[in-house]
Structures are given as C-alpha cells and as structure tokens.
Amino acid sequence: MRHCLGFAFLPVIFVPLFLVPLLAGPASAQELSSQSKPGAKVCVAIVANRTAKSLFEERMTARLTRSLVQNKLEAVTMDSATTNDRELHPTIENSQELKSRECDYLVLTHVNDTKTYPGEIRSPEISIGGKAPSVDASDPMGGSSGPVYRDNLEVGFALFRPGHLKADLDTTLLAQPSANVSDSLLPAMDREANRISHELKKK
Fold first, then answer.
1. pLDDT of the residue at 53
2. Could you tell me the residue range of the domain that residue 62 belongs to?
C-alpha cells in the first residue's frame, strides 16, 4: 500500500528590513539601562576656612569646580559658602541656591587644623604622605636654618543630595602646607574632585 505524504504550503511573507526593529518589540530593561544617561549637575559651595591661616577660599573653590568639570561632570560654583560648623551640613542659603540652580548634588568643603580638636573621633581619612619638612625654595624658614616641619591641614568634604540630611559621602584628606598655604591646598582640591567623581560614577 502506498502512503502519500502531504505537505502544507504556507504563503511566504517578505518583511522589509526597516520594519524588523519595530516588529521585534520594545528593548529589554537591560538594554535600556545600558544606554548613556545625562550626567548629574553638582553645585560647589565656597570652601570654608576654619584655621588661623590665611587662605584664598575662592581660588580653592574655583580649582575644585574646574577639577570636577575635567572629570566629565557638570559643576558650578555657588555664591553661598560652606558652614563654619564642625559638622558639615547644608545651610538654608545652600538649600535655596541648590534649588534655584537645579543641581542634583551639593559639595561642601572646609579646611581644619588637625590640632584644633585633639582626641576627636573623625571620619575616615585619605592620607597621602605624612608630616614632611618644607623644601619650598620660597620658604624663608627653609634655608640655612634647615628643614621646617609643618603640621598637616585637614580638608573635610561631604556630598549631599537635595532633601537628604545624611551625606552620600563624608570624609577627609590631609594636605601638606608649604610657604604659600593656598597653593599647597590646590592639589588637595584635585584629590577631592577625584574622590567625588568616583563616588558619583558608582551611582
């Protein structure tokens, strides 16, 4: 007995190539999350000087803002300053300006003498180098009289989001002062910017 195999012939539908992405459905959540997102806007408050030394706070603030921009962040310098309180926190002026400038983050920075509060429990420190003799040629005390040992200054900084009382980042780093203290703190502003940039890139 002979068996016949039946074949069902279905019409072939040709779909133009430009319609394929539309028929494939929406992109997965993973694909959407991998797309580039606009960077956060960072407001930088004027650095507060809590030491007895003369510092150029505006110059340090400008350096910090510029370093953040060089790290591919949108950063602007504020008119309002960092609080002079021991604990970093946004002031009313900071909060109002943060809202008017439509920033996503607020950076507060202050400079402290490490001997101001002996025995105080501090936040984790970022220490690069230690107490070292001055080798600055412009230092009037570093000539024939021999090397001069200078105490480190502490740069504390914190990163806040609008409406949040707890900082996303709150830490300190140690800076070695030289004859021109303000100049010696400029590299510290670069290190602060790098730390903030690293923190924001994790979000």
1. 85
2. 38-116+149-201
